[in-house]
Amino acid sequence: MAGFRIQKEKLTGGVVLVGVKGFLDAHTFEQLEKEFADIFDAGSFRLIVDLAGLDYISSAGAGVFIEAIGTAQENEGNIVLMRPGPNVKEVFDLLGLSQIFTFKDTREEALQSLARVGA
Amino acid sequence: MRGSLKDRLTVSNDTRHLLAVRDFTGRMARQGPLPPEEVHKITLAVDEAVTNIIEHGFNQGEKGSIEIEAEWEGEKEKFRVTIRDSARVFNPDSIPSPDVQEHVKAGRKKGLGLFLMRQIMDEVKYRYKDGQQNELTMVKYVKGK
Fold first, then answer.
1. pLDDT band at A63 (very low <50, low <70, confident <90, very high)
2. Is the pLDDT of residue A51 over 70?
3. pLDDT band at residue B1, thresholds of 50, 70 and 90?
4. Average confidence (pLDDT) over A22-37
5. pTM for the whole thing?
6. Which of B26, B20, B88 is nearest to B53 (CA)?
7. Mean pLDDT score of chain B, rounded to an integer?
8. Measured between alpha carbons, how far is A40 from B137 in angstroms, rounded to an integer?
9. Which helix (H) or strand (E) holds B86?
10. CB-CB neighbors (< 8 A) of B119 in chain A
């Protein structure tokens, strides 16, 4: 589907890195919802999501993260967000989500943060 | 580049048109003296409003259209966006803003659009026009309200 792309990479310790690019809105959010569901179904609950390539997010997109972090944390995992652009970070701030999600600048910092969440 | 201070876009009730809605809103908002981050937020508010209409205003399979009119008023002091649709009557004034923290804790992912619209815009007003059309008007003042 045009406008939104997802890349997935398995890192050490069962962590999954998800890179998202483009526009995450009411038209595209189901792609990410499905991707998270597939990752959870495979038994991975520690995720890093790289937002550097994400140009836009609306509440439909933010909703996917709200649902996913709940599932991750219920399963002793977590979701760490990486490198949001200012417009994307603004939406997390407006929704009060910046207090719920951990943001990191590098993959190493994100991995360290997840290492503190049970293996 | 100078552009028109008033323009209109009509789209059908399909989320694939959201990109066009955002492009239109951004192009119009940039005609005035708003900083880029405010242009982005207004674009988001309009996206949320149109998304709500598409997702909640029509029955499954029902075709409909949504008109978005954007206009700079006065000496570019305020930016007004009026959204008209023929969907079922929906008065956002009847919906209280959610307690977002509670909403998020409960894992609820819907209902945040209206909260964003009210956070971003200085005025959000609804009326049922001529007994046949929803009309939502959102205003942003350049210098705040």
1. very high
2. yes
3. very low
4. 98
5. 0.93
6. B88
7. 90
8. 41
9. none
10. 94
- Does position B18 have pLDDT exceeding 90, yes or no? yes
User: Are the CB atoms for A6 and A51 separated by under 8 Å?
Assistant: no
Q: Which residues of B touch A70 (CB under 8 A)?
A: 107
Q: Which of A4, A25, A79 to mutate to test the interface with B (most CBs of B within 10 A)?
A: A25
Closest CA to A21 of A50, A52, A48, A54: A54
User: In this structure, are residues B80 and B25 in contact, taking their beta carbons and an 8 Å threshold?
Assistant: no
B114: Cβ contacts below 8 Å, ≥ 6 apart: B48, B52, B92, B95, B97
Chain B residues within 8 Å of chain A (Cβ atoms): 15-16, 18-19, 22, 37, 40-41, 44, 47-48, 51, 54-55, 100-101, 103-104, 107-110, 112-113, 115-116, 119-120
Q: What's at B18, amino acid-wise?
A: L
Tokens of A77: 């995992």
Whether A95 sits inside 8 A of B115 (CB atoms) is yes
State the average pLDDT over residues A79-106.
96
Q: Which residue has the tokens 């978005």?
A: B68
Helices (H), A24-117: 29-41, 59-74, 86-94, 107-115
